[in-house]
């Protein structure tokens, strides 16, 4: 009998190593996808920021009254017959027949979406840890939970996001709730990382405080939707209007070739503005869908940990919800691709 066990031992060890390799591969895939999603979003933000800086420069250059400041106070005529007035207003009341409003060049997709994508990446690490415990109840999840704590702490450095003031239209109560839920999430992530080497304590923390993640994710989808609906005013729109104003002011002094070049830039900017007005809500919807998928995945994993299942059922739950996380990260990565 002992000889038979010794004969089987290499195969049992091999099977265990193979299972561990599969788990490590899955963990690596989530981390890889999270990095790819964040990098793709960053490239998209960089592209938009470049267009916004060009728009701001063109707007300021279109009228001598404007200075390179943000926000810019713009005067707009209330009727076509209003007397001429400078485009920009430094201080005081607007000119007769005009109204003033501020254009904040700094209000961009990066300021709104970046902290929410960072939080989504943090939740991906957390879900990866829960899936690992489901797959192998005594596994080591220290790396995943440490990454979760680090990412959650990084999200708190987005000051406007933590204060809940980065999206107009979110009232003070919601802002306060967001700040409190983020503080609770960071504390939860820190405690998980501290107990990461003791799976029993990790499971106890997940059972007692796992709904902290629910609260942190709950408002994000609505907030992104609010931003998406209001995102039609784009850098390209400002850019096209500023170029058109420059064309009106300078066309008499420009050659035909210069007028043609400026007109082509105006048409291109306005075409880009129409595309951005259509695409911004679609990109916001992709981030909202990713947040919803991540919320479903981490809650499904938590419920599976709390239930009584066979090893096969636990592994199936782990695979299902890791797939949801992977799809969520794919939606984020896709926002940098042309629609």
Descriptive overview:
The protein is mostly helical. It contains eleven helices and two strands. Strands 1-2 form a two-stranded antiparallel sheet. The protein is elongated, with a radius of gyration of 26 Å. The protein starts with a helix and ends in a 6-residue tail after the last helix.
Distance between the termini: 65 Å
Shape: elongated
Number of helices: 11
* Biggest sheet layout: 2 strands, antiparallel
By secondary-structure content and strand pairing, the structural class works out as: mainly alpha
Compute the average pLDDT: 79
List the main descriptive attributes of the protein structure presented here:
339 residues; mainly alpha; 73% helix
Question: How is the secondary structure organized here?
Answer:
Layout: H1 2-61, E1 72-77, E2 98-103, H2 109-135, H3 142-155, H4 159-163, H5 172-194, H6 199-209, H7 211-218, H8 220-229, H9 235-250, H10 256-306, H11 311-333
Antiparallel strand pairs: 1-2
Helix pairs in contact: 1-2, 1-9, 1-11, 2-3, 2-10, 2-11, 3-5, 5-7, 7-10, 8-10, 9-10, 10-11
């Amino acid at each position: 009998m002992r000889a038979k066990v010794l004969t089987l031992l290499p195969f049992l060890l091999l099977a265990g190593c193979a299972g561990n390799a599969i788990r490590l591969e899955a963990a690596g895939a989530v981390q890889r996808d999270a990095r790819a999603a964040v990098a793709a979003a960053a490239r998209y933000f960089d592209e938009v920021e470049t267009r916004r800086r060009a728009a701001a420069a063109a707007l300021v250059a279109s009228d001598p009254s404007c200075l390179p400041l943000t926000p810019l106070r713009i005067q707009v005529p209330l009727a076509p017959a209003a007397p001429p007035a400078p485009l920009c207003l430094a201080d005081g009341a607007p000119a007769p027949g005009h109204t003033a409003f501020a254009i904040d060049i700094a209000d961009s997709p990066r300021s709104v979406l970046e902290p929410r994508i960072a939080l989504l990446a943090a939740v991906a690490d957390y879900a990866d840890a829960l899936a690992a415990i489901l797959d192998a109840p005594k596994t080591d999840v220290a790396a995943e939970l440490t990454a979760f704590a680090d990412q959650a702490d990084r999200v708190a450095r987005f000051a406007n996001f933590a204060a809940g003031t980065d999206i107009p239209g979110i009232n003070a109560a919601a802002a306060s709730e967001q700040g409190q839920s983020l503080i609770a999430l960071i504390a939860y992530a820190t405690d998980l990382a501290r107990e990461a080497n003791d799976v029993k304590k990790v499971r106890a923390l997940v059972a007692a405080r796992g709904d902290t993640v629910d609260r942190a994710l709950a408002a994000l989808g609505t907030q992104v939707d609010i931003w998406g609906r209001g995102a039609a005013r784009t850098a390209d729109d400002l850019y096209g209007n500023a170029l058109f104003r420059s064309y009106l002011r300078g066309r008499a002094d420009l050659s035909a070739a210069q007028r043609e070049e400026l007109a082509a830039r105006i048409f291109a900017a306005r075409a880009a503005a129409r595309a951005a007005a259509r695409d911004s809500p679609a990109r916001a919807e992709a981030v909202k869908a990713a947040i919803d998928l991540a919320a479903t995945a981490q809650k499904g994993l938590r419920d599976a940990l709390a239930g009584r299942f066979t090893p096969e059922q636990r592994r199936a739950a782990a695979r299902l919800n890791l797939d949801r996380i992977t799809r969520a990260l794919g939606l984020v990565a896709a926002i940098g691709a042309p629609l």
